[in-house]
Amino acid sequence: MSARSAAPAISRRTVLGSAVGLGAAATVAGCSPAAQQEAPTGGASGTTRTVTVRLWDEQVEKAYRASFDAFTAKNPDIRVETTLVAYADYFTKLRTDVAGGNAEDLFWVNGSYIQPYIDNGNLMEIGADFDAQRGEWIQPAVEQYTRDGVLWGVPQLTDGGIAIYYNAELVEAAGLTPQDLTDLTWVPGGGSGDTFLPVLQQLTEDASGRRGDESGFDGTKPGTWGYSAAQDLQGIYYNFVGSAGGAFQQPDGTFVFDSPEGRDAFGYVVDLINTHRVAPAASNTNDNGDFTRDQFLQGKIALFQSGIYNLKNVADGADFEWGIVPIPAGPAGRVSVVNNIVVAGNAATADREATTRVLQWLGSAEGASYIGAEGAALPAVTGAQQAFSDYWAEQDVDPGQFAEQGQLPSISAPTGQNYGAALTAWKPFFDEMFLGRTPVDEALAEAQAAANEAING
Amino acid sequence: MTVPSLPRPSAAVRAGGRPRRRLRGDAPAAWALLAPSLAGILAFLVLPILVVVWLSLSRWDLLSPIRFVGLDNWVEVLTDGRLGHSLLVTVLFVLMVIPLQTALGLAMALLLSRGLPGSWFFRVVYVVPWICAPLALGVVWRWIFSPYGGALNALLGTDVEWLSDPDLALPVVAAVSIWSQVGYTTLFFMAGLAGIPTQVLEAAALDGAGAWSTFWRIKLPLLGPTTFFVLVTGVIASFQAFDQIYALTPNGGPQGATDVIATRIYLEAFQGGFNLGGASVMALVLFAVLVVVTLLQQRFFAGRVTYDLS
């Protein structure tokens, strides 16, 4: 008897059946979510449950990891994992992941993008489980994320207001002192009463060393720019619109930036770039939101206007003396946009109880203190803000200017059901306007029409 | 010119040499062997296409429930000027890329096939851009073309706004595309040249044909199948070009100068409005355009390509 005949008889039908079965199994396995990625949420049945958190800020992620280590030490049954997604792709990826059921249990969201998630029931209500903590959160953040009496996220960061970081060496080289920068005023169209533009011209140098206010200055060959004017919503143009006395959006979401005040504000900023050339050409900045920050850190921009969200980056990246001064005042005074960020609970989480406990931790003074402890950002939990102040006091940095600006009149942060679509709609017109190729009046009119069409779906 | 002919298969071999009854008996086994790949094709090719067709008839923004809207998306997209603009930009892009990419690939293949010293080094170098991640290359090129601090302006001593000038943006992204794809084209032409029987070239040489005459009358005609393949795949790839163009000019470029159809589909689906229905319509239009273009190419080459190298 041969070995072959001794083996159990396997019919062709058996082989075919097995092949088809294996193929089907492989196909089904390939389609199942578990095969695509590890299940993001833990189940209550396991001894250790995993809660996942998505955010976009690298500095805060480091702080979160320390915070979650402390949380797990107190709650050994829950492990917390963080996922960092770059801001440029954050809201695109979040939306596709929420749609695909792959989003984390908790994720950061800002005022511009939260509305569709509220409208479609994708977020957990911050309800009675958080009543004991509500008083610890800063009120503007609670108001910004409350709709019809329901809060949709636990406040995490507050930006305060916008301020200007200055390079002390460049300021001194221009024959100025930090005091010269503390009370500047911009006037629509420049001219009489405008103290901001002359300072910027003094701070700007072309490649051959001529200052922006000297004859023969050639701004097309830049050496050092005086200012960071660019198509930066939060850092630059919202504040100019606000300090011109205008609004960008009405409370119902309608865009109203094509107004006399809006034209004054954008006209001034565009002139700084294209006429006076005290800021980088928009071809550098339109598609690169980090260009001005990077140039400031490289000592190529004297005044960098931004928020507290760049404080840690500046402190870590600048190898020169620097300080913080107020933004310039406009016809309506010194007005800045104030924004807050919340962490929201995913309504589709598989473990609501564990997710709620992590949310409560992040909303507590202890949990949020880690954000401030390393100076990563200003926590929106009042009791955690002292850690932030202490950290920067140790570094001999006074970030009080952001808080002071936050107390002044502000312009509302962008929002709306279709805010992302509106931003996509107005950007091409703004690109051309900042490049100086389309007149401000024309660009604003077209941009506003496109934005309003998009925001209304 | 006399060329020894290769042995041809006998009629019995061509017919398979086995009775029809046997073939019928093998059918289940054949289906079983095909089943895994068929399942894959159904799950990952046919099903997604059907989903795209369904989405083209629906309103969906990823978060709200999917709502059937009939032909509304089709009417909206086909009456909106953006699709036509994107198709025009795409055709211009293809016309810039394909002739140069093919000619350069052929020229480099001819040079590298001569066996000159160091040819192996250039063979590797030419293929490197093709095997690198297009998005990463796009980021590097973006720095090279940066108006301030960019390598190209520094090298030339100019202040040209390569990517934000509406007249320059498309030729610039086309040049980057050619640069990254020419190695791939070269590889195929080299394979095609290696497949030309040496006896044909020797016979041409014996008959007194010069290098130029050999190229035009022998090599180029016998490279017909390769040229056909390179053109078909190149045209399809150029119509679908996305990653490098997106990395260089993220929002369709200045005044929509680089708003090719693949970028438009992405922007429509995933930026801002999340209009999955409209994007699906555009994807199906692109599919139809590619089918038509490929059929036209096939028809053009049908009487001009010989697969018989004997």
From TrEMBL, chain A:
Q: List keywords of the entry alphabetically.
A: Signal, Transport
Q: Which domain of life is it from?
A: Bacteria
- GO CC annotation: cell envelope
Cell compartments where the protein resides: Cell envelope
**Pfam families this protein is in?**
SBP_bac_1 (PF01547)
UniProt entry tagged with the keyword Transmembrane helix? no
Matching InterPro entries: Bact_solute-bd_prot1 (IPR050490), SBP (IPR006059), TAT_signal (IPR006311)
Q: Give yes or no: UniProt keyword Transport.
A: yes
Which interval of the chain is the signal sequence?
none
PANTHER family, per this entry? Answer: ARABINOSE-BINDING PROTEIN-RELATED, SN-GLYCEROL-3-PHOSPHATE-BINDING PERIPLASMIC PROTEIN UGPB
Record's family? Answer: Belongs to the bacterial solute-binding protein 1 family.
- The protein here is known as Extracellular solute-binding protein
Q: Please report the organism this UniProt entry assigns to the protein.
A: Auraticoccus cholistanensis
